[in-house]
Amino acid sequence: MNNSPLSRYTVLDLTIARAGPAAVRLLADWGATVIRVEPPPQKDRGSVTGRRRGADEQNLHRNKRSLFLDLKTPQGAKVLRRLIERSDVVVENFRSVVKARLGLTYEDLKKINPRIILASISGYGQDGPYSERPGVDQVMQGMCGLMSVTGEIGRGPVRAGIAISDTTAGMFLGQGILLALLHREHTGEGQWVHTSLLEGMLNKLDFQAARYTVAGDVAIQEGNAHPTQVPMGTYRASDGLVNICASTHKMWAGFCKALGAEALLDNVNYHDPESRLVHRRQLDADVEAVTARFTVAELVRRLNPAGVPCGPIYDIGQAFEDPQVKHLRMTRPAGHAVLGDLHLVRSPINLSAFPHPERFERAAPDPGEHTEELLREAGFEDDDIKTMMEEGAVT
User: Fold this and answer.
1) SS3 for 196?
2) DSSP 328-353
3) Of 289, 293, 329, 391, which is least surrounded by CB within 10 A?
4) Terminus-to-terminus CA distance in the chain, angstroms?
5) Residue 52 contacts by C-beta under 8 Å, 6 or more apart in sequence?
6) What does pLDDT average to over the chain?
7) What residues act catalytically?
8) What's the sign of the alpha-carbon dihedral 130, 131, 133, 136?
9) Residues 6+ positions from 10 with CB-CB distance below 8 Å
């Protein structure tokens, strides 16, 4: 991957859990040299993602190398300083007091390397009344309001089925790092980039957030129906469920004509978007009376050519076996010395000048797998490495 867009950059990954590693994965997938600095086993802060050879961590940490390092020892601090001198980006998710204690604030790092970019991710932000609280995805889904608009009407809050606040914050931090690298190209200056799960999710609420901040509307649960566009939602077919969007005038007309339901076009309650929204409950019932006469496949085949978005509702296995997904080749193999070829989900970004490689460069490393290799690359002699190992600074 020497010719990849980020191949000239070196990134130190000091993070645990999911959000920080997801940000680093974006950089690793596009060629950055990533050194994952992990605490020795006896001082491991723990992982929420399971064992390193499991599917989750393999997908999260591919294209990285791993170094065991005890940052609290003098020799560990010396190694870290050497790595910072040679790096472009340091990514971390320590609490503020821990950053200060370990000498990992931006003010500390820029004394070592004025061009360094420090990228920080947290639950609630770097300051403020909740800044020292631990932040996890489920708690954040509830606190940002997402759970209040997810689920069926009146059934109580429901979490999204993925770690959406972790991956959202990770993507935003990755974008922030790229912005900081672009800025450094022009100025030579590093900077501190940070975001949080809370900031990421409040932004991710998007139009639901704007409904409140602009108009004072507090959204509620609408189940599988869209909160403002009608008809759009999940409807029953003769053999299952299907998602349909027919909310514009053109799509509504296309829906009615494609399924032989022209009588609905003459209903005065459905003549314009505002009327359809007011009468949405009856409209949804009328739409489902039509869709129930067709199979899912028939609805997909009739409605999409009519300009009406329509699709089946898959489980995850069916999604990856769909012909379009197969065409997009959303997985690539990563060769693992013990586990063999692992099929991992590739980056969704497509660059015409940099086609996706046929294989990932490396599977996720076992913790500490590259300790000696990375120390030698950083300029430490074998005797130095032996001494650090004897003192427990590295493993």
Assistant:
1) strand
2) HT-EEEEEETTTEEEEEEPPS--BTT
3) 329
4) 28
5) 58, 61, 364, 365, 366, 367
6) 95
7) 166
8) positive
9) 32, 33, 34, 35, 86, 87, 88, 89
Residue-wise pLDDT tens digits, 98-144: 999 999 999 999 999 999 999 999 999 999 999 999 999 999 999 99
* 50 vs 3 pLDDT, higher one: 3
pLDDT value at residue 129: 97
Strands (E), the chain: 10-13, 33-38, 65-68, 89-92, 117-122, 192-196, 232-237, 240-245, 310-312, 331-336, 340-345
**Separation of alpha carbons 149 and 305, rounded Å:** 32
Q: List phi, psi (to 5°) of 190.
A: -85, 180
Band of the pLDDT at 42, cuts 50, 70, 90? low
Rounded Cα–Cα distance for residues 107 and 136 (Å) = 27
Q: State the pLDDT at residue 48.
A: 47
Distance CA 151, CA 92 (A): 34
Rounded to the nearest 10 degrees, the angle between the axes of helix 296-303 and helix 249-258 is: 130
- The tens digit of pLDDT for each residue in 209-252 reads 999 999 999 999 999 999 999 999 999 999 999 999 999 999 99
Which residues does residue 336 pair with via DSSP β-bridges, in sequence order?
340
Q: CATH for 10-204+330-391? A: 3.40.50.10540
What class, spelled out in words, does domain 232-313 have in CATH? alpha beta
Radius of gyration of the chain (CA): 25
For residue 295, CA distances in Å to 8, 182, 309 come to 53, 51, 16
List the one residue out of 377, 391, 386 whose CA is nearest residue 85. 377
193 three-state secondary structure:
strand
Strands 240-245 and 310-312, sheet pairing: antiparallel
CATH 3.30.1540.10 spans which residues of the chain? 232-313
List Cβ neighbours of 342 (8 Å cut-off, separation of 6 or more).
Answer: 55, 58, 333, 334, 335, 336, 363
> How big is the CA angle at 133 (ends 131 and 138), to the nearest 5 degrees?
115
* Residue range(s) of every CATH 3.40.50.10540 domain in the chain: 10-204+330-391
